[in-house]
Amino acid sequence: MSRTASTGVKVIIVGAGFAGLTTAIECYLKGHSVTVLESFPVLKPLGDIISFAPNAGRIIHRWPPAPISTAPTVAEQYSPICLRNDIFTFRRWDGEFLTTQPVHERKEDAPEFSGHRGAMHQILFEYAKALGIDIRLGLRVVQYVEETDRAGVRYIVRGADESTPEPEVMWADIVVGSDGVRSKARELVLGYVDNPKPSGYAVYRAWMDASSIAQDPLTAHLVAGADYHVGWFGPDVHFIFAYIQNTQSVSWVCTHKDDADIEESWSFPGKLADVLKVLDGWDPVARRIVQLAESCVDWKLVYRDPLERWVSKAGRICLLGDSAHPFLPTSIQGASQAMEDGVVLATCLSLAVQRGDPLPDAVRAYEKLRYDRVRRAQVLGETNRDKWHKADFDKVKEDPEGMKLGRDEWLFAFDVEKDACERYAAVVDELKKRP
Ligand SMILES: Cc1cc2nc3c(=O)[nH]c(=O)nc-3n(C[C@H](O)[C@H](O)[C@H](O)COP(=O)(O)OP(=O)(O)OC[C@H]3O[C@@H](n4cnc5c(N)ncnc54)[C@H](O)[C@@H]3O)c2cc1C
Q1: Average pLDDT, the chain
Q2: What Pfam families does UniProt report for this protein, alphabetically (predicted)?
């Protein structure tokens, strides 16, 4: 796979998260001209564990090495720094063994990746740069504008006077608002401010060096061998631990009831004493993991009802990734669906050029092709959470199968690019019939 000849389509992408970078890479490889604007002035390895399911692994696997770089492919770089176990162990809150489930099947053409978000993001960013994609850091987009034949953005240069955005509008054929859960683009697309709602849950999260776990007699067995992945489940709480041998790191997340109504943030500091309160009376091994941490993040999970649309009136600005559809972590699909979005948008733009369709039709087709599948994956987050949190824990020992996560073919075996190519024409022709 190498770069397709130029299509002449110019795309501005706002946000260089996984959604923005994937869209940029896919657009670039398909011959569109791309500029990415990101408000962070420098890239920092932020976050902790993030997962890409096989449906996203298939996308990553297809990316070729960058021509001028000697670095291995993105998939080759992800492999050694990601979880490489193939069994997930379920325990009841008190430590009682329940069952195991095979996970992380290493299908070569659709691998599954779970690793440190910051490290994985850095690799993706370096790859996009090595391809030659124009990525501009330190530019915060503050306004989206749209005319019938073009769309644009105004931005503020980091550190400049906040009240005076750059006077010039930066124009393109299409603008992509992949600007995350607190999207500014969403206001333009919806025509109103969409306020997030608390989901009723929050997650304490930590990523730490494995050495303290290795030195404690109660926890040493967790990191004594190969990669290890285990979860403890109790009434309305679950606690998941992962050991990634090659990075000598461990991560844990503790999802629990929480009705606090604050803005979601990845850097809100949590208190370890509060985590231990949530885990009061739980397996001493789980509690000791928390006691060995130096700090954790308290991430209040907010949620949004599905948005009515992802595309602006004139069809030249669209939402993509978390800005269009935030996910509950129990879906384990947020980042994967963001990647799928990017592939579909880039594919639709290419097919529009080939068929001579107006570009706004391609953008509307992107929404149409994605909407139902994304919604189905979003609902999975609620189903999985309820499966784990509302289980009858007295009975779960007799029938632990009910705790296992669905690893459905419709989700994992899906080739998003193939699907977009197959359905695009019918979707656009249908859209054209509308008044
Ligand atoms: C700092 C950070 C840490 C995270 N850590 C984790 C984690 O540990 N585990 C996990 O599962 N998920 C994490 N996430 C969320 C996860 O990355 C996303 O849910 C998923 O990858 C979808 O990505 P996205 O690109 O749609 O959104 P995001 O990853 O949120 O990316 C959006 C990007 O847009 C930029 N942006 C926002 N507004 C503007 C603007 N006005 N102008 C220019 N740029 C703008 C942001 O700086 C950000 O880089 C994190 C997100 C962030 C931003």
Answers
A1: 92
A2: DAO, FAD_binding_3
* Ligand 1 center–CA 396 separation, angstroms: 36
With a CB cutoff of 8 Å and minimum separation 6, the contacts of 268 are 262, 297, 298, 299, 300
**pLDDT-derived band of residue 265, with 50, 70 and 90 as boundaries?**
low
Task: Give the CA count within 13 Å in the CB-facing half-sphere of 360.
Answer: 15
Q: How confident is the model at residue 182 (pLDDT cuts 50, 70, 90)?
A: confident
Query: Tens of pLDDT along 3-43?
Result: 999 999 999 999 999 999 999 999 999 999 999 999 999 98
Atom of ligand 1 nearest to the CA of 266: 3
Whose alpha carbon is nearest atom 49 of ligand 1?
A: 17
Q: How far apart, in whole angstroms, are the C-alpha atoms of residue 208 and residue 293?
A: 7
Q: Which atom of ligand 1 is nearest to the CA of 142?
A: 41
CA of 180 to the centre of ligand 1 (A): 5
Residue nearest to atom 9 of ligand 1 (CA): 50
d(CA 411, CA 416): 10
Residues touching ligand 1 (Cβ under 6 Å) are 14-20, 37-40, 46-50, 117, 140-141, 178-180, 184, 266, 321-322, 334-335, 338
Beta bridge partners, 114, equal 51
Domains and CATH numbers, the chain: 10-84+109-194+305-433 (3.50.50.60), 197-303 (3.30.9.30)
Query: What pLDDT is recorded for position 407?
Result: 78
Residue 333 Cα distances to 51, 92, 113, 373, angstroms: 8, 25, 12, 11
Distance 280 CA to ligand 1 centre (A): 33
